[in-house]
Amino acid sequence: MTQPSEKEALARAAVGAPGPQRRTLGRRVRSTVSAYGFLGPAMALVFVFFIAPGILLLILSFTDLSSANFNDPWNIIGFANFERLFTDPFFPKILRNTVFYVFTTLILFNLGLALVLALVTTSIPRRTGFFFRLVWLLPRLTPSVVYILMWRRIGQADPYGIYNQLFPEVLGASGGNLFLGGSPWTFVILTNGFIGASFGMIIFTSALESIPKDLLTAAKVDGASMWRIIRDIKLPLIKWPLLFIATYQTLSLLTSFEYILLLTDGGPGLFTTEVWALTAYKRAFASYAGNSQWAFGATWAIVLVTVALLLAAVYVKLFKFNELIEEPRIENL
Amino acid sequence: MRVELENLSKSWDGVVGADNITLDIADGELVAFLGPSGCGKTTTLLMVAGIYKPTGGTISFDGQIVNAVAPKDRGIGMVFQSYALYPHMTVFGNISYPLRLQKLEKDEIRQRVQQVVDMMGIGDLLDRKIAQLSGGQQQRVSLGRALVKEPQLLLFDEPLSNLDARLRLTMRGEIKRLQKDLGITSIYVTHDQIEAMTMADRIAVMSKGVLQAYDVPEALYDRPKTLFVAGFVGNPPMNFFDVEIVQADGDFRAKSGGIDLVIPSDRAEKAAAVKGKVVMGLRPEDVDLVDDTSPATEGLTLTGETTVVEPLGREDLVQVSIDGVEMRVLVDKTKGVRVGDNIELAVNTTKIQLFDPETEQSLLWA
Description:
Structural class of chain A: mainly alpha
Largest sheet of chain B: 6 strands, mixed
Helix content of chain A: 55-70%
CATH superfamily of the domain at 85-274 in chain A: MetI-like
CATH class of the domain at 85-274 in chain A: Mainly Alpha
Largest interface: A-B, 19 and 26 residues
CATH architecture of the domain at 85-274 in chain A: Orthogonal Bundle
Shape of chain A: flat
CATH class of the largest domain in chain B: Alpha Beta
Oligomer: heterodimer
Distance between the termini of chain B: 31 Å
Number of domains of chain B: 2
CATH architecture of the largest domain in chain B: 3-Layer(aba) Sandwich
Strand order of the largest sheet of chain B: 6-7-8-3-9-10
Number of helices of chain B: 9
Largest sheet of chain A: none
Order of helices and strands of chain B: EEEHEEEHHHEHEHEEHHEEEHEEEEEEE
Number of helices of chain A: 14
Distance between the termini of chain A: 41 Å
CATH topology of the domain at 85-274 in chain A: MetI-like fold
């Protein structure tokens, strides 16, 4: 089709001829089609790998599928699994463990230590700061299984662990049975926290470095001490990264269990360090007396997913994430 | 407050930011630090503020050395080019911040902030967020925050550079009036020589970390001590020619190519000692177009062809090619000079400047 001349277009417009409208409609259809064309692959991935498994999981949690009755995979048993879950004698303990593990690691390390590292490494000479951040990133560059097994070797109960052999009397631990033997939570949280802090550290560092130098100079001239500058200027200005990391890390800690699995496997003893996600994994895949209770595991998982979704919604509401979406301000670009 | 800088230096790993700056500022004086970007003016200002630690020399306030005093204890207020307002606070929050840090009573804070915003004419903006303010309003808030502490010394770091031209003009007058009314000693860093000329009691001209000249504006303009000062102060800038000073028939003449000017002997004598070429400076306004009303005098004129004519409104800025050497002159616009005209210019040779090309020092004003 050749381009209509300007005169032609004017004439059409004057008599209200359908030419341009038809083309506009065609263009609209085309642009809609191409928009979905671009969205399509991502939507397909999201559906296949997130939504469909979620639906399957939900259905599964209403069945009694396990390796013991594999011949009747879709036998719906109603809420029996949920009843069993909430009346499990160890349910309160696992819930307490999960809350303790998630929020202690989050506050002390993923937010706390990350913030301290970011504040310190941005206050010292640039190159030194960069070096220390790199050191803190090393665990991220190590395969996580290797990283966890190294910690395990260090912290194993007396008389095996490196720590217990080197410092048997430190911290008043009786019989040198420290860490995995005596304080398994300390150990689990340290192992998680040391690697978890680096994510927040990177995000906070870049946020802190983007604070204009003039603002800090102004605050110093206004009479603010280092502590007041952090409290009054730096923290409010990195509010969004802080809230983002808090949200993101809460959710990822809720679902993380591989560290605990490899370090303590929920022990020592009964459910001492067992968290929700680990229970879900164990019920579904680690066989109890040769029986993998897939459906019961799915029930633990689906409750966890629901809790996580609710928590995410609370965070989004509480932290007013919709305020993040701001009109662009051209003059600031 | 009296401020004295003595041999003040700052360098980072061999890069010199400020080199042996020595100057004094009298109580109540407004001094401008003038120079192109990277000349060390902001570095010097930040040392006075206590943000940078000097690598050499001393800073004294009223005779007391303050090198080791923290910024918050120096009694200074600072205004920035970027305004540096705290974006998460309201106007009230920003202006009251220095007072809140001093842990003053709520009532006193409110009262002092009110006083300042009334003075700045921003009383109705107290509850606004910073992002809701225009540039001019932000600059007023920034000034208010600096003043609310009742500082002994005000430091301005290019405060008007981000404002539009008209607002800059208004704020220029306002800052100067405020500074005089309150009598606060001030340092005003700028690269805009008009700002420096109009506002400052004295101007410190800086280049490459070195203090080039420190004097009242008229002296810098009429008696520049270095080639840099001569070229930097004044707009449009001074014209420079490489000339030779020769003595003939009792007259001193500056000669080079198409240039042959009789120079007043009091000025020329000082340059005669220099063998070879000297640099002659001539301001664009120190010439007149030769026509019927103002006839030419032998030895006091230049002739050339106009290559560019820029109307400035009141006069035309004309670029003239004198035997290949370009020169800018200001000409009355009623003369109607056009591109390609051959014009003759009467030179006010009593205003001529002469510099040593090697040392770049003035031969006239030691």
